[in-house]
Amino acid sequence: MGQATVVTGVGVTAPNGLGAKEYWAATRAGRSGIGPITRFTADGYPSRIAGEVPGFVAEEHLPSRLIAQTDRMTRLALLAADWALADAGITPEELPEFDAGVITASSSGGFEFGERELRNLWSKGGAHVSAYQSFAWFYAVNTGQISIRHGMRGPSGVVVSDQAGGLDALAQARRQIRKGSRVIVSGGVDASICSWGWVAQLAAGRLSTSDDPERAYLPFDAAAGGHVPGEGGAILVLEDAEAARSRGARLYGELAGYAATFDPAPHGGRPPGLRRAIELALDDARLAPEDIDVVFADAAAVPELDRAEAEALSAVFGPRGVPVTAPKTMTGRLHSGAAPLDVVAALLSIRDRMIPPTVNVSPDQAYGLDLVTGRPRSADVHTALVVARGQGGFNSAVVVRRAE
Length: 404
Known about the structure:
GO terms for molecular function: 3-oxoacyl-[acyl-carrier-protein] synthase activity. By secondary structure, the chain is of the alpha/beta class. The protein has 2 domains: 5-246, Thiolase/Chalcone synthase (Peroxisomal Thiolase, Chain A, domain 1); 257-401, Thiolase/Chalcone synthase (Peroxisomal Thiolase, Chain A, domain 1, 3-Layer(aba) Sandwich), CATH 3.40.47. The protein has 12 helices and 16 strands. Strands 1, 2, 5, 6, 7, 8, 9, 10, 11, 13, 15 and 16 form a 12-stranded mixed sheet that branches. It is globular.
């Protein structure tokens, strides 16, 4: 096997589109999936809008035995994995069972399932708590359920590093492909829009309190006041490039470079680690900054975090040195699902030779970024950088490029 790892299938469950085709059509058109919360009554909370996946009826896609034992997060992940495998033209049952594995990321686990069972415990007693609670809440449950559903018993695992986790999972999958695995299903899907999950997210102090879906999530904008959470994400199929070509697979692109760093302790005088992660990812891909055609930003919408990201990008690429976009302004921040969804957007940007917009934002020129706003920008995108940061100091960067 060679060293190049490619993406051959994608599955998307996003607030502005259920399925990759619908998501990409909405993203190109600048259509947002952010709106008032409908999954629980949020009237008494300071933040009341989110990105919810529309039109998802689990019973239309999954058998009843799985409905009983899974959280919404896992149901979305199972559907995305089904779609990704079908998109790749892979039938797992036809592969030797140890040739395929699953590596996903998770940020919160199955909060909604857990909340329901805790309510049963408090109101009815322990006899009314589902036995499935023992795993339905767990960070690794998406990996486990996908692997069981498709008989994948190869290298598998889960990564927990908040928003950065989706890139870290893809990197782990790339390592396993390089070690000889035939297929790895990877990415991230989160869904914790329930009262318990909402309280946990509010505790971080980074959520927008605006009730206007068009003005709530404004990264790199002078009016930025926190982010809007969302649910969903993306699952991707990774393969060795030579093996994928030999079976006639369509190649979305190559996962060419990756790096991760940690921020230093506060007030220690050392700079944040994002710039170093970007530089190391470029080194891993054997590319120079001028080889990058677009950056998909983390886009925290917290002024000090936006400033730190802008400074890192300017330090590597120069002021306004590369187009920057944040299509997650149409979905909200999807925790572990956000960065894999950005990777899908980057691959589709390469395919369609265009950069999707950052909607609703009036960029503050003080940040020194060439932010793509308003409408898509035509561009011969060959190579893209995706960056992600997780609360607690996680930084990750992935380079994807056109498969030659």
